[in-house]
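REVIEWER CHECKLIST
Item 1: Sequence provided? yes
Item 2: Single chain? yes
Item 3: Sequence as submitted:
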Amino acid sequence: MSALVCRGLTISYNGRAALSGVDLELPEGSFLAVIGPNGSGKSTLVRAILGLLHPSAGTVNIDSGIRKKGIGYVPQKSEARGDFPATVYEVVISGCLGRLGLRPFYRRRDREEAEAKLRLMGIWELRTRAFRELSGGQRQRTLLARALCAAGGMLVLDEPAAGLDGESEELMYRILREINSEKGTTVIMVTHDIRRGAAAASHILELDGRLRYFGKASTWPGAL
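Item 4: Structure as written out by the authors:
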């Protein structure tokens, strides 16, 4: 089964193509590293996957079962608002909102899930702190914990290591590998750290305004 299918995907801004003619079919349960130079269309692809941008041509589709389970998202550091009038705990548990349905309140399972992800990311002690008071690295950990609460079928990350120190970055990669291998969650990660990204991923997507390579990480020319 395919988690993500793109056919002739083209995204344009003001009549100019930022991403052109992308064809790919990503198997469910994959770990995809999206690489390429600045301006190559990586973040544009992410926004198209999330439905924030509509194709100028072609299609992008996510399996309906994955959508039903939930998609977690960690934006670029520059796109994440730092003025949330909320505590760290409130930001993290908001990742469970998609499961509430008609219920106006969180269940015990949601609260337990939020606590587990806060502890997993090493920020349980910060749970009562205001999000706007956090350092850049602490904010990234908080947003990743929130995304993990939301991600039942897919996790999409746009430069998630930005602002993280070496220890936090290693923790992030370990967690991503675990949820991918143990829970079967499809992971799509934009990264400038080609070495680390290629080592963690099962598949590589290399962009430069169009598709340069898509396939298994083991056969990516950059790894040979």
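Item 5: Key structural point noted by reviewer: The chain has seven helices and nine strands.
Item 6: Recommendation: ____
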